[in-house]
TrEMBL record:
Signal found in the keyword field: yes
Organism: Clarias magur (Asian catfish)
Localization in the cell: Secreted
Protein name: Fibroblast growth factor-binding protein 2-like
Gene this chain is encoded by: fgfbp2b
Biased amino acid composition, Polar residues: 25-44
Length: 220
């Protein structure tokens, strides 16, 4: 009688253990199928963060997640107590090479961003070499950033003597001036006096000077 009771208790314990294990497995499967969680089967691939240091030694991390019907890449960097981030959107799953190795896709983007002093001030679009033959949908396109990236301003000329800076648009080309016309004046001839005229008319050419002297002397 006692042996029969012990066997029944042992059987009941085994049945209870099997039921508890089944309930635990069902609970684990339901929690794993959270709609907000991104898995490899959903097309975003491996989601482990990719950490790197850029040219300015900023500590950066890349995180991949889903965004509506696209894939979002967020890059966050920290430097000297400050931080900045930027988002890129795209559909890299249209690339066959991405489906085989999604982690390598974002690693190639990381190698480009690590060359920059600010990893969020690089290209507007990133298309890794492994997906060059795919359509432009496979590239990651800049979406947003914080702080906002300032627009490039027009170059200014150096400031002199405390005056306001002058832009290139305010400068006008200097028109070349035409050279002023110069008029040449003919040398004026000294009028001949009466003695010289008389000497030219009545004296030989070799002694016209002497004749003019004596004519002036007699005239005076």
């Amino acid at each position: 009688m006692r042996a029969t009771l012990q066997g029944a208790l042992l059987l009941a314990c085994c049945v209870w253990a099997i039921i508890a294990q089944a309930q635990s497995n069902n609970a684990g499967n339901s929690s794993h199928s959270n709609p907000g969680e991104v898995t490899a089967s959903e097309g975003t691939g491996k989601t482990e963060p990719i950490r790197f240091n850029n040219k300015a030694k900023d500590e950066c991390v890349m995180v991949v997640s889903s965004h509506r019907n696209a894939t979002k890449l967020r890059v966050t960097c920290k430097t000297k107590g400050k931080s900045y981030w930027c988002d890129y959107l795209g559909k890299p799953n249209v690339c066959r090479a991405y489906s085989k190795n999604p982690h390598h896709y974002f690693t190639q983007i990381m190698w480009e961003m690590r060359k920059l002093p600010n990893s969020c001030q690089g290209l507007q679009t990133y298309k890794p070499q492994m997906c060059r033959s795919a359509t432009d949908e496979a590239q990651m396109v800049f979406h947003a950033s914080w702080p906002k990236i300032p627009k490039k301003s027009k170059p200014q000329l150096p400031v002199k003597d405390g005056s306001k800076p002058v832009t290139n648009a305010a400068l006008k080309p200097i028109q070349p001036q035409k050279p002023a016309k110069t008029t040449t004046q003919k040398p004026t001839e000294t009028p001949k006096n009466w003695a010289d005229q008389v000497a030219e008319e009545h004296c030989w050419e070799s002694i016209q000077g002497i004749c003019s002297f004596f004519i002036n002397w007699f005239q005076s």
